[in-house]
Amino acid sequence: MHNGDESLATLLGGRRAALDSVVPVAGFVAGWLAGGRSIALGAGIAVLAGAAVAVWRLRQGRPPAATVVSLLLVCLGAIVALRTGRAEDFFLVRLLTNAASALAWAGSILVRWPFLGLIVGTVLGQKARWRRDPALLRAYQAASWVWVCQYLVRLLIFVPLWWTGHVVWLATAQVVLTWPLVAACLAVSWWVLRRSLPPGHPGLRHPQAAPTGTDAGATHQ
């Protein structure tokens, strides 16, 4: 593959998005503890922290849609915790989004439109040209399973902690399972992607059309 030192981490900017989600969580727990387990104070600080991160990212040129979604998730978590009166429910929205993400990524692989291919293809300006390359399609499918596993790992840890109401441990898990886990996921999926491509393949930036008479969508995995 002729990509030099390029990797999924540099293409997708995983560190920045991962760190953004940690700040409001830290704010929530800090406020909750400082206020004598006050959900209102924790929720207020979380929303303010999320808004500050959103403004900062917008000034850096981050896509508005991604910034708004991140802030919306923080607000929803705060509202849920305030309505239920359970501090651990601040993390319920994140738990549900991880479950939905695991199902969505698995589904995208099964219908042969792996999300990793869609994301990287969009970043590289290829639209869906990568799908006409059977080898690249298979590689994206294989690497996308790593992302499914990432969400499942989070659920295996988050669900018991949420169920037992361990708020501080939930926040700790959120920090540990954000950038470190995303970094590991990016590294492993990049390794799987490279290993799945046949020798001599020109790489992600240069999809090869399927030979005449074959259909990339019907190629055996």
Q: Which keywords apply here?
A:
disordered C terminus; single chain; mainly alpha; 221 residues; 9 helices; 70% helix; disordered N terminus
Give the topology.
Elements: H1 8-12, H2 14-34, H3 39-59, H4 64-84, H5 92-110, H6 115-123, H7 134-163, H8 167-176, H9 179-196
Helix pairs in contact: 2-3, 2-8, 2-9, 3-4, 5-7, 7-8, 7-9
SS class: mainly alpha
Q: Give the domain tally.
A: 1
* Rg (C-alpha, Å): 20 Å
- Low-confidence segments: 1-5, 214-221
Give helix and strand order, one letter per element, not per position: HHHHHHHHH
Tell me the overall shape: elongated
Q: Work out the helix count.
A: 9
Tally of strands: 0
* Cα separation of the termini: 21 Å
Helix content: 55-70%
Give the integer mean of the pLDDT values. Answer: 87
Which band does the percent of strand residues land in?
A: under 5%
Largest sheet: none
Summarize the structure.
It comes from Dactylosporangium maewongense. This protein is mainly α and 221 residues long. The protein has helices at 8-12, 14-34, 39-59, 64-84, 92-110, 115-123, 134-163, 167-176, 179-196.
Overview of the molecule:
This protein has helices spanning 8-12, 14-34, 39-59, 64-84, 92-110, 115-123, 134-163, 167-176, 179-196. It is elongated. α2 runs antiparallel to α9, α5 (92-110) runs antiparallel to α7 and α7 runs antiparallel to α8 (167-176). The protein has one domain (8-218). It has 221 residues and is mainly α.
